[in-house]
Amino acid sequence: MTLSDLEGQAAEIVRRYEYPKAAMLPLLWLVQQSQGYVGPEAEAWVGRRLGVSISHVREVVSFYNMFHTQPTGRRELRVCTSLPCVLRGATDLLDRIKEKLKIGPGETTPGREVTLTEVECLCACEMGDRRQDHPGRAHGTRETGIDP
Question: Which of 28, 44, 47, 64 has its CA 20 to 30 A from that of 4?
């Protein structure tokens, strides 16, 4: 699906908001759902639709870890590397996952099955170390018996 194929849906989304700029997150999500990621062409398209600079769109895309700037795998494995999780073993967990999958954070397995993502927080600090198999909920290695 191309960006021009999304024009009707985009117009409907923008109509829902009093201020067009408020539609940025839903438009970015529309693009990602249809293309799998938000690339530079899509950032420019969203900027034109909303009357904002490409750099502003890029700031939003880079701020939220739910948006991807390149194609990802069928599944995304997120590992929290914030301080509470690091203190409870996240570094070792990430190292084991990297070794098993033979990829690093931000990379995708050759068959496009899994993308490994390092995130700042999964909002479960009291239960670290945490990983999230997206889409899904956060899991601790101790509770789920994950053996990366």
Answer: 64
